[in-house]
């Protein structure tokens, strides 16, 4: 928990600074989407939150918060690295991610990279004749900053999009911005807008707004729920839960199972100490079922999730992810 100073603003810090100034004017009261870009951004990262139905707006409190809500990065203790691999997506598709973050005196800085690609696409001309195979690759690179004020975390992530198809490239920029608030010892809330003013060449990236609540009713138990609204889509509901075993054996671990404080000097026994196992289940905003498990040591966390596919032609997801803490 954050220590509280008595410096006025509150009423939930003026209700998250008036809904982050009404989500920065809801992209100027929204344009119609004729063409949209960067659909891969919605696929999520990190097996833990995906297994919890993607209800990460108030839950994510490690390096993966750079994606789910940059405000959650303010809960990081020091240095973290994360990566992820989606196994056997089928149709020559790949989806991968890597991130690195570090705490400084002025807050937390992080950089993360998301890549989605498809290889061996069959090219054809206007008459339907094959012209050879080509590849498509999409990249999203974000630099995140987060800090805290009293019981509120805030953060933002300027983003760069790059899309290449058969050697041709298009690029653009966007912004994620979010906040989290510690209501009390057992409940946190969060709000976030993703891909604010996002654009790749002439195509808009649809913005997405999420608001979430996470509860810690018992030691080791997390229950999370998000409302998710994407531009031009109906509101969706994401829900998930998590249970960790062997909690409380390490006096350096906090009750919410956020990042563990690391000693300055570690032996290998330290690195693999405080062994914990976790199980998770959830339904995302598209009503897809997910379930997973995790192993956590003092400096290493490994997670797995199974998630139902969102289309008959796509395989179900089997995702593994890793977090290293230094």
Overall 3D form: globular
The tally of structural domains comes to: 1
- The largest beta-sheet arranges its strands as 1-2-3-4-5-6-7-9-10-11-12-13-14-15
CATH top level is Mainly Beta
CATH fold label:
Porin
Number of helices: 4
**Unreliable runs:** 1-6, 250-264
Strand content: over 45%
Mean model confidence by pLDDT: 82
Q: How many E-type strands? A: 15
- Helical fraction: under 10%
Radius of gyration (CA) equals 20 Å
Listing every helix as H and every strand as E from the N terminus to the C terminus, the arrangement reads: HHHEEEEEEEEEEEHEEEE
Main pleated sheet: 14 strands, antiparallel, barrel
What's the end-to-end separation, in Å? Answer: 21 Å
Short description:
The protein has helices at 11-29, 47-51, 65-68, 268-271, and strands spanning 79-87, 93-104, 107-124, 130-149, 152-165, 168-182, 187-200, 203-204, 208-215, 221-230, 235-244, 276-283, 289-296, 300-307, 317-325.
What does this structure look like?
The protein has 326 residues and is mainly beta. The chain has a single domain, classed as Beta Barrel (Porin), CATH 2.40.160.60. Helices cover 10% and strands 51% of the residues. It has a 14-stranded antiparallel beta barrel. Strand 5 (152-165) and strand 6 form a beta hairpin.
């Amino acid at each position: 928990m954050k220590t509280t100073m008595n410096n006025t603003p509150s009423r939930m810090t003026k209700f998250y600074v008036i809904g982050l100034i009404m989500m920065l004017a809801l992209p100027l009261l929204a344009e119609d989407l004729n063409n949209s870009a960067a659909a891969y951004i919605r696929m999520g990262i990190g097996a833990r939150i995906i297994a919890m139905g993607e209800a990460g707006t108030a839950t994510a409190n490690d390096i993966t918060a750079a994606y789910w809500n940059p405000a959650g990065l303010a809960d990081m203790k020091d240095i973290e690295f994360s990566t992820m691999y989606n196994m056997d997506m089928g149709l020559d598709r790949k989806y991968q991610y890597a991130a690195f973050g570090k705490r400084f005196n002025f807050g937390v800085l992080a950089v993360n990279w998301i890549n989605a690609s498809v290889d061996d696409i069959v090219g054809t001309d206007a008459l339907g004749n094959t012209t050879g195979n080509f590849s498509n690759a999409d990249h999203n690179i974000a630099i995140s900053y987060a800090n805290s004020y009293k019981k509120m975390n805030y953060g933002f992530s300027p983003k760069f999009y790059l899309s290449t198809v058969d050697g041709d490239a298009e690029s653009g920029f966007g912004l994620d911005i979010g906040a989290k608030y510690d209501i009390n010892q057992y409940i946190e809330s969060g709000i976030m807008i993703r891909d604010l003013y996002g654009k790749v060449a002439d195509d808009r990236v649809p913005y997405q707004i999420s608001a979430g609540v996470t509860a810690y009713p018992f030691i080791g138990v997390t229950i999370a729920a998000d409302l998710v609204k994407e531009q031009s889509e109906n509101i969706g509901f994401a829900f998930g839960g998590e249970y960790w075993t062997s909690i409380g054996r390490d006096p350096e671990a906090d009750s919410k199972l956020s990042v563990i404080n690391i000693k300055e000097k570690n032996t290998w026994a330290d690195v693999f100490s405080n062994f914990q196992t976790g199980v998770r289940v959830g339904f995302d905003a598209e009503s897809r079922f997910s379930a997973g498990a995790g192993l956590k040591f003092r400096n290493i966390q490994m997670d797995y999730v199974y998630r139902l596919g969102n289309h008959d032609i796509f395989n179900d997801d089997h995702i593994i992810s890793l977090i290293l803490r230094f």
